[in-house]
Amino acid sequence: MMMLDGCALRVLSIACKQFSNCIKGVVVREGGLVFQLRVEFFLLFLTALRKHCWFQLYQLVDLTCQDYPDRCNRYWLVYLFLSHRFNFRLIVEVSVNEFILTCISIFPAVGWAEREVWDLFGLRFVGHPDLRRLLTDYGFDGYPLRKDFPVVGFLEVRYDEQVKRLVFEPTELVQHYRQFSFVAPWLELIRVNNN
Predict the structure, then answer these.
(1) pLDDT, tens digit, for every residue of 68-125?
(2) 1 found inside a domain
(3) Angle CA(112)–CA(59)–CA(126) in degrees, nearest 5?
(4) What pLDDT digit, counting tens, does each position of 37-54 carry?
(5) How far is CA 187 from CA 178, 180, 184, 195, in A?
(6) Do 41 and 117 belong to one domain?
(7) How far is CA 127 from the centre of its chain?
(8) How distant, in Å, are the alpha carbons of 23, 47, 195 from that of 92?
(9) Alpha-carbon span 106 to 49, nearest angstrom
């Protein structure tokens, strides 16, 4: 288990005393201190992280998302913050379903990251001033990092000899969720050769 330094212990103590209604859980990981928040108090806690004299987390380093389709709150958002004054990193995690309020008024640099998450996962950030496609084409249908997105996409492209051009047809692969085989193919070959 990782040991916390004095600054991290002070932040943990202050956060648990003053914001206990916002916090679902606290975890200590290799990356530092992790707060798991209730979604209804999300913006309140982020405002405190930026403005409180013992936090001063002015920089939102990164925002990422994970998709768990079998959970009632499908998306797990992970925010990584940095305090230059105290040389301290903090991770905030929140579990949401289809939408969450944007924190662009608190951390203006998050606009780009929220657009990426929306573009790739379809998670809507309510109040975002410019929520549009960023990494996929404007006409792209679906969200490619969702677990229910077909591996091969929605269209098949092939050359039709009769019409002498490329033909786009709907994919005929029925797939609700991706199923992963964690057995490496080369291990199967080794087993067959040994028998």
Answers:
(1) 999 999 999 999 998 888 888 899 999 999 899 999 999 999 999 999 999 999 999 9
(2) no
(3) 40
(4) 999 999 999 999 888 887
(5) 22, 16, 5, 13
(6) yes
(7) 18
(8) 10, 13, 51
(9) 10
